[in-house]
Amino acid sequence: MLYVDGMNGVIGHPETIQWLYTLVGSKFRLVVKTALKLLLVFVEYSESNAPLLIQAITSADTKRGCKSWFNAMEILQEKDGVDTELLVYAMTLINKVGI
Predict the structure, then answer these.
(1) Distances from the Cα of 56 to the Cαs of 39, 47, 60, in angstroms?
(2) Is residue 9 in some structural domain?
(3) Are 87 and 75 in contact (CB under 8 A)?
(4) How far apart are CA 43 and CA 39, in angstroms?
(5) How far apart are the first and last CA of the chain?
(6) Phi and psi at residue 65, in whole multiples of 5°?
(7) How far apart are alpha carbons 67 and 71 in whole angstroms?
(8) Is residue 71 in some structural domain?
(9) Could you report the per-residue pLDDT of 32-66, keeping only the tens digit for each?
(10) Helix (H, G, I), strand (E, B) or coil at 66
(11) Domain total for the chain?
């Protein structure tokens, strides 16, 4: 169940989206998986959220001095202990945003 007021709060607070994206770079699999799932819910909630996510990712990665989508690309490039679920979530997020 989605709480509309809560989602509207997230939509209006780009720092929260940036924070969720930075969690995708965590070394803990469960944190990464949960962050990816939440970002997917955010993007699927409304079509207008995809550009917000792109802006948040660009901003977060620019602050860290990385290329855009660095955290997601790290998941896709990982060769040791590949977690197929993480790969699926990362690719789904990229496809939903349409980059």
Answers:
(1) 11, 15, 6
(2) no
(3) yes
(4) 6
(5) 28
(6) 80, 30
(7) 9
(8) yes
(9) 999 999 999 999 999 899 999 999 999 999 999 99
(10) coil
(11) 1
